[in-house]
Design goal:
About 40% of the residues lie in helices and about 15% in strands. Helix 9 packs across helix 11. The longest helix is centred in the middle third of the chain and has 32 residues.
Length: about 425
């Protein structure tokens, strides 16, 4: 097959490489010339994705993968077009369609009969049928379901482990017609491999959910569940703090029973997915009070961490120099999308503290570009807040960060022993 992948980001590029590894001819489209140049030079444009460097070199070297900024080089003649353009939402759960509208318009003007178009960007329920398919039909002059097919098939992977997740999880598809769904099933079976999963009720592979709406809903449901679960863990953590209990012991004990799956509490929920997709769900279902309350609970955790620090220091934070450890939203991943570092630093500054930020994955210049004053180990500070669970933080302590009087560990990544002369507090423990 000839396959076009629209948007070569942290999901789109690994997908393009995966398709090429199965012997198909793949051309990626991206609006960023630097990304396109890097891909054509077989250089990964972003670090941290397992296996991508080797797989990218193989795909480009074999002639199976190339990139362009020009849709006209990619879309005509393609059997399948996969669109993985980011969708952003604001705090009121209003989607910003600009990037996806632009990509859809560019594809639609060049669409040819016989093409399968698959949207993988997470969407509010109904968007594929009511927004994208009519746009593509109007722009191309073709009839969806007869001349071309549109399906929704959500990406279900995490940055840093995309290739493993592609094998691990069933590939969900939902079409606007039976014929379109059948095309999508055949396509994804031809480009993906799947691990054996004895824990599933049916074999791992491509699962047709019967409609685009069911496929859209499944992605929102699985991610919203995680946000709600984390919010429950955070509520338990705050109660445990007030009650002199270690919530981690409680969670471990609870989860020893097979019907309990309580997640871990923490200072923040970040990334492109968990903080965002519940808002997309709320776009469809504004009466979902559980979802809305959970999102509010998780969004309040950075402020709660600063409350704990203020309590450990016994007073005002005015003039207190605080090192926030970690800019990334998740350990080992160089990405700050919706990271807790932003509200944590904002709250510290609001209370008169002097926040500085450290992250082993970011240079001082990169931290400054994010709006932070960089911190280097060895410099004196008054307090520390652990925001990211980088592996490097397991071994950092008072010898590396001198002068510390109080530590708030938002990820349970450090230990009391590492800070013998400082007050040490883990979110979720009252002891």
């Amino acid at each position: 097959m000839r396959i076009s992948v629209v948007a070569l980001g942290k999901i789109g590029l690994p997908l393009a490489v995966q398709y090429a590894s199965k012997g198909h001819d793949v051309i990626g489209v991206d609006v960023n010339p630097a990304v396109v140049a890097a891909v054509n030079d077989a250089v990964e444009p972003f670090p941290g994705e397992a296996e991508l460097d080797v797989r990218l070199r193989d795909a480009v070297g074999s002639g199976r993968l190339r990139a362009t900024t020009d849709y006209a080089e990619a879309i005509p003649g393609s059997d399948v077009v996969v669109i993985v353009v980011p969708l952003f939402v604001d705090e009121e759960a209003r989607p910003d369609w600009a990037w996806m509208d632009s990509a859809t318009e560019s594809v639609g003007r060049l669409l040819e009969p016989g093409t399968l178009v698959s949207y993988e960007t997470t969407l509010p329920v109904g968007t594929t049928r009511t927004r994208w398919a009519p746009q593509l039909a109007a722009l191309s002059g073709l009839r969806e379901g007869d001349d071309f097919h549109v399906v929704f098939s959500p990406e279900r992977v995490l940055s840093g482990r995309v290739f493993a997740d592609l094998r691990r999880y069933p590939k969900l598809v939902g079409g606007l017609s039976e014929a379109g769904a059948a095309r999508a099933v055949a396509f994804y079976e031809a480009v993906l491999d799947f691990d054996d999963r004895g824990d599933l009720d049916r074999p791992n592979g491509v699962w047709d959910l019967g409609s685009a709406e069911a496929s859209e809903f499944a992605k929102l449901a699985e991610t919203t569940y995680r946000d709600v679960n984390i919010a429950l863990a955070n509520q338990f953590a705050r109660f445990a703090e007030r009650s002199g209990i270690d919530v981690y012991q409680v969670i471990e004990a609870s989860n020893s029973q097979p019907y309990s799956h309580i997640h871990r509490p923490g200072i923040a929920v970040g990334g492109h997915c968990i903080p965002v997709y519940p808002r997309l769900y709320l776009w469809n279902d504004p009466e979902a009070t559980v979802v809305r309350t959970a999102r509010e609970a998780n969004a309040s955790m950075p402020s709660h961490a600063v409350d704990l620090l203020e309590g450990e220091l016994g007073g005002s934070l005015a003039g207190v120099r605080v090192a926030v450890m970690g800019a990334a939203y998740r350990g080992g991943v160089k990405e700050t999308a919706f990271s807790g570092v932003f509200p944590t630093v904002e709250e510290l500054a609001h209370r008169g503290a002097v926040p500085v930020v450290h992250d082993p994955l970011y240079s001082d210049e990169e931290l400054q570009s994010l709006g932070f004053a960089p911190y280097r180990t060895g410099e004196d500070v008054d307090a520390v807040i652990f925001q990211t669970d980088h592996a490097e933080y397991r071994t950092i302590g008072a010898a590396d960060v001198p002068g510390v009087r109080a530590v708030v560990d938002g990820r349970r990544i450090s230990s009391r022993a590492a800070w013998p002369d400082a007050a040490y507090r883990v979110i979720g423990t009252g002891v």
